[in-house]
Amino acid sequence: MNTNRASGWRRDGRSRLIIFEKTATIEFMKKRFYIGIDVGGTKIAAGLVSPQGAILLRNKTATPRKSQPKKTVEVIADAAAELIEEAGLGKNDIAGIGIGIPGLVDTRKGRVIVTPNMNLSGINLSQKLKKRLKTKIFLGNDVNVGLLGEKWKGAAKKAHDVVGLFLGTGLGGGIIVRDRLVTGFQGAAAEIGHMIVDPRGPRCTCGNKGCLEAYVGRWAIERDIRTELARKKKTSFTDFFRGKKRIKSKTLRQALKKKDPLVTAVMEKAARMLGLACVSLRHIFDPEVIVLGGGVIEACSDFILPYVKKAVARDPFFSHLKDCRVVASKLEDDAIILGGAALAQQELGREPAEEKFPSLILKGAKSIFIGTKEYDEDIYIRVDGKVKKRNRNLAMKKYGTLLKLGSVELKKVCKKKPQILVIGTGTRGLLRLTPDAKAYLKKQGITVKILSTSKAVMFYNLLRDKKKSLFLHLA
Length: 475
Ligand SMILES: [Zn+2]
Prior knowledge:
single chain; Hypothetical Protein Mth938, Chain: A; 5-stranded mixed β-sheet; disordered N terminus
């Protein structure tokens, strides 16, 4: 949205309303929503996101792992197109699409450089998707995008400087400095897992020796458990660890819960290493929050987090400064979808908005989503953002129809006095204000905007930082 134009209208008040409306219908009412896509090794999850960060619709498709890149691109495009269609929107209603890719990404050119676990390496994904979806496409590394999601709506909400460590099979990292992701010269920054902590250490998957990941990644934890097993160290989990089957995070959690000595010792070593890494990172970035996430953390945060917190808290260098919070990630599967939307907003020069007002999305003529909740009868939203169902009896008793809106009902809608009241009159525009309702609004000095319900929804969504109310007739 072009906020300058909108605020110009706000300053000038009512007289500019007509000008605003004309241009708004053409330009500003469009492009109100974002799509975030999490391209994973097993699934592709997409969500339609409001500017305030509500996921309004979502879908999930299996990643076509064994087919040509063309097919994968198609599946990603289909996921976005389906959301747009299902929401009853057009391509013009989407301001931008942000995508998290598991690999190295050239964020400027929109090209995937390498994806080890899928077949998108070398593909200019942005260009291909743009051709089909006709909107702006922004790519990012999945861990980076997920951290942006956590900063917007999750564990690092309201923080401006954030470091994220995501402990799964490997160790992914993300760094946010003054609200922006640090991506480096060619998109390869923030690979915290490959910081070398001991040049004589174990070999890492990247080819170097002694990377942090080679101590704390799930594969490294598994390696250490097997080494200890070979040394005939005692464990009650021998059955679980027999054979070549992967040791899952869930198994680690069970073993920790049962205080298995072998697993506890291995995990303690990893947790201490992670704590030391956070101390070092704090010295470089001075973050307000350190977010720990990923499969191993989700399963074992009770065990790991205290070690990291302790290491960070007892750093003497920071004893005179404010604390750095160490927290577990919150958004799980939604992190990358929300982060994708946040990335698109940032790249378009808009700061991701806070949820001041609910964002609405109309589904067909008779149903509306407010946040994640669906309503299929007349509703109103008061100036404080509270959503209320219309009391049908009031209108039926007095007028014998729901198509009349009188002053008694309006007084409820306009409680706490809005500056502007938007009224949606239904698909065919049949709802009417009674004379006493009009007189009431005039007396109160409330500007009223009467539109068909679909236009009223768009208009309401568009009004920012304004004392606004909405009444919607759904039919
Ligand atoms: Zn490495």
